[in-house]
Write a structure and sequence with these properties.
Length: 160
């Protein structure tokens, strides 16, 4: 398929700028379908589909958390790890304001604001991961090592 048939989002620009080889994985987006839908549509293990969560601490400082599609984030453990009182998921409006992406199409790459990024440590053990390319219904396949390379994502152990 011709390259120009895929969206060129801020995330794609960042991947190209860093000369990362990636594969395109468009799928039929379903409202509130989450990673289960994208994994089903792409025929991949949901554990390898990585969700990008925009969260904030009690002072409203935003951060990015990358988690396996089939796992949840223990905000209590994350707050303890970061030395803050609380961590909460941002409202869709706040997430959009911080990231520049619509919820359901949030990529950790090319965000509007620079935010610290945290990645569930076991994600880094995977070969290829599937992560949002900056548009609803569009994932990219990249090496998991890109998360440390491009985002300087710090590994954490906060999955439940």
């Amino acid at each position: 398929m011709a390259q120009d048939k895929y969206p060129v989002t801020p995330a794609i620009r960042v991947l190209r700028q860093h000369k990362i080889d990636f594969s395109h994985h468009p799928y039929e987006y379903e409202e509130r379908g989450g990673t289960a839908v994208s994994a089903r549509e792409l025929g991949v293990d949901e554990h390898c589909v990585i969700k990008t969560l925009i969260m904030e601490d009690e002072a409203k400082n935003p951060l990015i958390v990358l988690m396996h599609g089939d796992r949840e984030v223990s905000t209590k453990n994350l707050a303890r790890h970061l030395g803050v009182k609380t961590i909460t998921t941002c409202t869709p409006e706040a997430a959009n304001r911080h990231s520049g992406y619509m919820v359901g199409g949030t990529s950790p790459f090319g965000t509007r604001k620079a935010m610290p990024a945290y990645v569930e440590a076991s994600i880094l053990d995977l070969g290829t991961i599937y992560i949002n390319g900056g548009k609803r219904g569009y994932l990219v396949g990249i090496p998991a090592s890109c998360l440390s390379q491009i985002l300087a994502a710090k590994p954490v152990d906060v999955a439940v």
